[in-house]
## 1
Amino acid sequence: MNARAKPISRPRLDEDVVPFSEYRRTLSDCFARTARTHRPIVITQNGRSTSVMMSVADFESTWDEIESWREKAELSRAVTISRKQFENGECLTEEDSFDEAEKMLDKMDVDGASR
């Protein structure tokens, strides 16, 4: 995960909403502001919000955080399913479990070699 000095902040509607024409004129200032404040800029067109600009570091860090939450959610679902299967007696023996893992590893080796 990318480390950054300050977490991304919510945009301030009184400072961080910029019409497209102003955004275009002050692009370099907008770049500096997003890097300094860690707040995205909301860009409007014809009075409506259309896009959001944020620094690359904040984007990458936010993306990493989203992926981390997805992985945690997937793991949590897998644990819940495993517990239910265990409670219902739907579990493998230790030997069957290792056999299954070896098959998966063999398949990964074959798939990796064929690319």
## 2
Amino acid sequence: MLETKQVSVYYGQHRAVENVSLNVSQGEIVVMLGANGAGKSTLLRAISGLTPKMAGSAVFLEKTNITHFAPHEIVEAGIALVPEGRGIYGDLTVNENLLLGAHLKRARQKQSENMDLIFGLFPVLEARRNQVAKTMSGGEQQMVAIGKSLMSNPSILMLDEPSLGLSPLLCKQLFRTLARIKETGVGIFLVEQNAKQSLAIADRGYLLDNGHITLSDTASRLMNDPAVQKAYLGGAGETRDSALQTAIPVAAFSASTPPSSTPSGTVVPAEPGFILSHGDGVRVGADDLIPENISDLVRHAENIQSEHIKAARSENLGSSLSSQPTPKPSDHLARVLAMIEKAAVDAMTPEVFQPGTKADTKRKIAPEDFEDLPEIEIYRKPKIEIYRRLKTDSDKGPGKLVLVKDS
């Protein structure tokens, strides 16, 4: 079991962590939640021996005092850290990264067994074992980082923000994998901003605020704690918006109909529509919760749709609409987008049709076509495109825009 007693870390006069005591047993997941700057990463680094601790701090692993161990001695004792930013060797292959994780004496005796475990957890790593790590995606690099730490054969695995930068799908896969790692008997100490998913797989949790532990409990109780919900799970708290959480689609609130006597928090149906119940039987009309009357919003939406239909009719190239279905606003938008796309293609073509000749006859643009014509610069990161407009002898309007520089 990992145990810290009164661990404190100062950066000069700044207190990062003060008197933090916690424990993590093998075969359980413990999550630490806290805002940015609360001291979570500092605590992990202090346990790993990477950041000096103040006098009076103590760290134990299986009753062995490792407070003053060097970082490599702490890994040898059985604690591995997956740091924020992954900490892999980008120029080495997947296989080389994993083998580096097993260079200590503790890990060598189970190198083959742990390699099989990692490939079982992350099959993609086995398929790409000879791929250079820096050419892999962020999620795959995180797999390499976790695998490298597991190769050290740890009894306690510490992870600092492992889901950082990962897509929601990869986050779900990551947390499922951590639950499988727990089943092997490894204890996991997890620092994570994704409170919802981390608490879902954790056994216990701590809240770290301004360097102090302010709350510790089982993961299920933390998940349902109002303070945790408000701070980390998007809870609304005791505000006017909390009325929305008790919304019940049953009946419309009529100002002319007085509320009947009902038990606390219940609603008596009135006219068809929508009503909110909050507090001691207080019924709140939906119109009271938004800045504009619902009927006005509906009329406004109908007017917008009507204007779109009128615009679509006027763009129907003079054809009669009386015998045709009413165009949808989306049809009008599609036509406009098609016109814009066609204009863009025409503007960027390097060749133009020769006026007065057959349609399939083309000519290259000559330098004299650009005489005394202004340049048009269009800036699109990360390049610059420069166009010039061709001269035209006809009175049909300006000539075409032609791309003359692309950098």
## 3
Amino acid sequence: MALEGRLEVEVSSNGEAETVRFEFAVRNAGTDPVELQFSDACKAEFVVEEEGREVWRYTDGRMFAQMISSERIAPDETATYEAEWEEPRSGEYTAVAELRAQEATCDARTGFSVQ
């Protein structure tokens, strides 16, 4: 199984507050289809760190439907997962995204700034 992850971060402002949007793309770089199995409705975890210390986690305080599901990614296709962090404080951060599939791993990280 050859999964490759890419994480993009977009910081936007509506004039009053900023929002950080995360897009985690998981690409099947292999030659065979990949069948991902999930144990709940949350398919990816997003974490924000500041100097190695966790300051935000997408799943904190959220509930997800407990259901077994699967997703098939054909060779050279990409599955995309998104999250949003509202009203972050200013700083320099590292975002980490991780696939929450059973028996399959993929993650990505990138740095970003909030003004």
